[in-house]
Amino acid sequence: MTEDARRILIVDDEAPIRRYLRVVLGAQGYTLFEAAGGQDALNAVLGDRPDLIILDLGLPDMDGVEVTRRLREWSQTPIIILSVREAEGDKIAALDAGADDYLVKPFGTGELLARIRAALRRQADDSEEPVIQAGPLRMDLSRRMVTVDDREIVLTPTEYDLLRILMRNAGRVMTHRQLLRLVWGPAYENEMHLLRVNVSNLRRKLDPDPSSPSPIRTEPGVGYRLVE
Amino acid sequence: MDTRPDPDFLLAQLKAEDKVRRRGSLKIFLGYAAGVGKTYAMLEAARHRKSQGVDVVAGYIETHGRAETELLLAGLEILPRSETEYHGIRLPEMDVDAILARRPALVLVDEFAHTNAPGSRHPKRYLDVEEIRDAGIDVFTTLNVQHIESLNDVVAQVTGVIVRETVPDRVFDQADDIEVVDLPPEELLIRLKEGKVYVPDQAARAIGNFFRRGNLTALREITLRRAAKRVDDQMRAYMHAREIPGPWAAGERLMVCISPGALGDRLIRSARRLADEWQCEWRAVYVETPDHARLSTPEQEQIARALTRAEELGAKTVTLTGSPLQEVLLHYARRHNITRILVGKSLRPVWQEWLRGSLVNRLIRESGPIDIFVISGEQEKPEPVPVSGFFPHRPLNRYFRSVILVAAATAVSFLIRDHIAPTNLVMVYLLAVVIAATNLGKGPSILASLLGVLAFDFFFVPPYMTFAVSDTEYILTFAALFAVGFVISHLADRLRVQAEVAERRRVETASLYGLSRDLAVSNSMEGILRAITDNIAQTFNRDVVVFLPDRAGTLGPIAATADYQVGENELAVAEWAFKHGQSAGRGTETLPAAQARYLPLRTSSAVIGVLAVRPHDPSRHLAPEGYRLLEGFASQAALAVERVLLSEQAQQAKLLEATEKLQSAMLNSISHDLRTPLVSITGALTSLEDQAEALNEEDRRSLIRTAREETERLNRLVGNLLSMTRIESGALALHRQPEDVQDILRTAVELLGNRAAENPIRVNVPPDFPPIPVDFALIAQVMVNILENAVKYSPPGSPIDINAGEDGATAHIEVADCGVGIPPEEAAHVFEKFYRVQRPENVSGTGLGLSICKGIIDAHGGKIFAMPRAGGGTIIAIELPLAE
After folding, report:
1. Is A105 on the interface with B (CB under 8 A)?
2. Is A85's CB within 8 Å of B780's CB?
3. pLDDT tens across B644-666, in order?
4. How far lies A159's CA from each of A142, A151, A165, A183, B738, in Å?
5. With an 8 Å Cβ cutoff, are A218 and B777 in contact?
6. For A155-190, what is each residue's pLDDT tens digit?
7. Tell me, what's the ipTM?
């Protein structure tokens, strides 16, 4: 099954990784462009006008976060960054600078494709859909009703807002700060406990069984992601 | 008499030969008087060598303006002289540094016995030559016979001219080659008339005396004999080394007695000559009687110098204590099988001899089979040299005080005269005499006796106020008073001084003991250095610095008594002592102008440092006993320092070995564990590549699944190694936030993925569990590792329970499995790196998992431990503090 020919720019200095991405994404029907460095990437975005950018953080000539920041000065193209497991600080910095999601190396193809899809969907989906569906979870915004497997759940207004934002960005990571800013306002950027308590309550309401994984997944050190 | 060669002798011979090989050779052109042509002969020989291609350089040549000599200098490279400034006068001296820098094969140095200007590196030119030889450069030099130490006084007797510049016999004997430059006296006199002989101005007066035919002949004979003796010595050495039995000496042993005022130097030199003649070893003995402490300073120094000189000339020196003199000497002589004793007889007036007795006579009388040799002569006037107050000196107001005592006794007697009979009044005076004897010394107490008798006579014996005596019985009283006073004072004095001597010896021994005890106790370098500096500073009342080389070998002051600043010059002296392994500085022959004395710390293997000792008062010197004690301290110190250095080295070596072993084991393990997953991955991929047709769908899926699982395993292993490295290097950065336990556990289970597929995990967290301040990612990893461990050791299907609890201050999380369990003795070890419980087969993993857990939990300030579970299995429990 092929998507419509979306254009993806691959930015990575490692040739084997570029080759792998080219093969896999090409098979999915995406049109691909490549860049091996930060400066190349910036030029390529101008020249090739991709719909999505896959950006490795460990570039030789420019810091990946710097590339993101510069891009965001004049482009809203979704960016997925590639990073290593421990570099949490870099991940957060990139996400705060405007990247949309991240992938930890080594990653599986399924995960890659899912993230790409999520990022592209958000791009396309600017209009407010009244109903959002993610697995058994369903949110009717016009009626302010949330159901899990058609069972209604009662949420507080804050929890509702939180869930709405997560579902709007389903499949995509939201940093703690982004969530706090969007749900409570910029003044509450650092009130981690607020977020934690609400997420915890939300989780309990959505999925009472503690041993089964919740639809709201913790991205350690970074934020939360609603899995679809 | 044992004619076999002495093994020590052979060893010394070998060492000497060895040293000679590496050292430059010395050839001395020996003459019996100025003008025989030594310099000329040296230059001729040098030119001959030069023509053979040897690199010859003139270090210091004194031509005295003689044309024929200057002719010979032509064509030779002459090194410029250095100029030392002394009291405003510029004095040219030989430039040793220039010679060492130039490094010729052969250097010519005139006037071997010359004394260098003050401020030069060595006080004597022959010491400069030693240094040049040590650098491997050969030397030619010239010398007159009267400059040889042991012949100095003999020549003085012949010529009437005393020469003060001498060269020690050992230096002369060590020369590789002696060439006698001989000239018949008649010809020398002719040359003198022709003005071809240079004579220094000062000796112009004595020139008539010196250049007499008889003198010259005598001198010539002395010279030739000395040279012949050297040949004789060499022959004997040759025979001895080659084990040729020969006419060995009859085995005499000579002892020379040194006593105050008894000819000092001359005695020592005679002893040396006799020892040479009789081919025997000799010792110099000094007996420290109770009188010694009361000798005047110059006399004490004379004795010290005589002993030092004797040592330089090759004697063994001994200081004995005791009294009477001849008994101590003979006792020692008998014990050491001395066959001949040499004493000096000073010519004192007969009445003195009659009063004090003559040691010589006493010796002769009691010596038995030992031969006594007596050397007569004028008493030498000692040269004053300040010597340190190692032996305290008494002021002369003792006599004054004894007078006071007698006066006091008289006053007391006046007071009680009405109640006491005169004969008993004497007791008061006796008391005064006894007090004087015990506190003031022999002389003052004898004075007290005398004065007491007189006072008693004058004041208390009728007729009063006269010295006449009416009752002749009182004569007896006087005599008795005087005699008793005399005897008591004598005894008390001896006793006291003996006690003093013994006390001093005790203090010396105690100080050495104190040092060795302190050294034995310390194990660290600072402890040892402190023990050294404290002990030496206390014992010798001087400032101390210890120099030790750093890793690069540069010497630096490491420990010092307070406020001792080491200047650059001083450091240079220390370095010299270090490099050459010899004492330098004050009181030595090298760089004597230095502030302190520098002793090398030598051990059997090498010189490991330098000890510097500086007196508080620059004018005070140590007596030879003091130097000996100091050297004793230095060798103790050297051993202790070496001990610490060696033990440090040994520890480091052990540590290095252990580390290497561990590293090697670790690398092997990691190498294996990294490669193993690659086997399946490579296998799967290559077969999919090459054998695609031979495999059906199921096979392909199976291969792919295996490869994928193995990549995950490899990824985990790499992650573990990185975590371990981070923990070990302290680079573990903790970002602590209050986190939800449920969240952590849920994430952990998710991360575990399908590894836990066959073991249901049951999570039990009480509601309202408080958040724990932890680094989410790290603690999640801890839980993953623990769960992974539990799964590995559990049979499929058995459940794994996670229970959380808290008690207000600490949170507890327990992971319990129903697996094979851990033997109790291994429970503590499972958290060690690379540790794996031996029992289960086919369990993979490097054994890093739990040690990473421990590292992370420790960084959080928590605890982790393993316990057996009742009913089988293991519980791994974590405690984490709830406070920030």
Report:
1. no
2. no
3. 888 888 999 999 998 888 788 77
4. 17, 17, 10, 9, 20
5. no
6. 999 999 999 889 888 888 899 988 999 999 888 888
7. 0.79
